[in-house]
Amino acid sequence: MKRHYNYEKRKLTPIRYTIFLIAFLSQLVFLFFFAIVGHFESGDSSSDILKNISGIGGLASTITMCILAIYGAVLLNTIIIENYIGENRIRVYLYPYGRKKLFLLKVKCFVLVFLKFQFLGLVLSNVIFLLVEFVFPIVNSGEGIFSNLLMAINSSIASSLITLVVILFSGVIGIRFSSLPATIVSSIVLVVILGNLIAMSFAANVFLCLLVAIALTVLIYFIIVYAGVRIENEDVV
C-alpha cells in the first residue's frame, strides 16, 4: 500500500506549487484590494464589511476559494475522474489492488496535497497582510493582532475544507454522470450558489463557519466512501 501511495503522491508533485501560488497570490491581492477599497469608502452601512479585518478576510477567502475550487475540479478530472468514466474504466478496474481501495487512495493523495498547499498559501498571505496592517494600518479596525491572527488561521482552515468539499462533490457528480464537463459545471454552480453565503458567514462568525466546514467535510467523506463502494460493485460493461 505504501508503494502505491508514494506513486500516487509523486504524480501530484508538479501541481503542488501551482496550488500554493494561486492560494497565496489570490488571497494577498484581494486582501489588499478590499482593504484599500474599504479605506476610501464612505461610512455607510453598505460598506461596513470592508471596515473590519474579518469582513475583508471573508471576501478575499471566498474569491480565492472560488478560483481554487474551479482549478481543483479541472485537476481532479485529469488526475482521477477520467480514469473512472468511459473506456478508461476497463484498464483501471483490472488493477489487482482493488477498485475501491485504489479510488480512495487516489482521493486521499489528492486531498492531502491540495489541502496542505492551499492552507499554507492562505496562512502565509494572511500573516503578511496582518503584519503590514500592524505596521502601516489601512483598515484601522482597532482589533488586536493576536485575535486577528487566530481569525485568519480559522478562516484558512474553513476555506480550505470548503474548497475541497466543493471539488470532491463535483468529482462525484462527474463520475456519477460519466462526464468530465459535469465536474467543471458542478463546481462553478456550487461556488456561485455558495459564494455570497460563505462570504457573509466568514464576516459574521468565523468559528461557526469552521464548524460548518468540518461538518461538510465529514459528510463528503461518507459520500466519497459510498462512491468507492459503487465503483467496487460496478459492471465494466
Which descriptors apply to this entry?
single chain, 237 residues, mainly alpha, 81% helix, elongated
Structure summary:
With 237 residues, this protein is mostly helical.
What would your notes on this structure say?
This protein has 237 residues and is mainly α. It has one domain (2-233). The protein is built from 8 helices and no strands. The chain has helices at residues 2-11, 13-40, 53-79, 88-93, 99-135, 145-176, 180-204, 206-233. It is elongated, with a radius of gyration of 20 Å. 41% of the residues are buried. The model has no long low-confidence stretch (mean pLDDT 85).
SSE layout:
Elements: H1 2-11, H2 13-40, H3 53-79, H4 88-93, H5 99-135, H6 145-176, H7 180-204, H8 206-233
The pLDDT mean sits at 85
Query: Count the helices. How many?
Result: 8
Report the uncertain regions: none
Shape: elongated
Helix content: over 70%
Biggest sheet architecture: none
Radius of gyration: 20 Å
Spatial gap, N to C terminus? 28 Å
Element-level helix/strand string? HHHHHHHH
In terms of structural class, how would the helical and strand content be classed? Answer: mainly alpha
Strand content: under 5%
Number of domains: 1
Number of E strands: 0
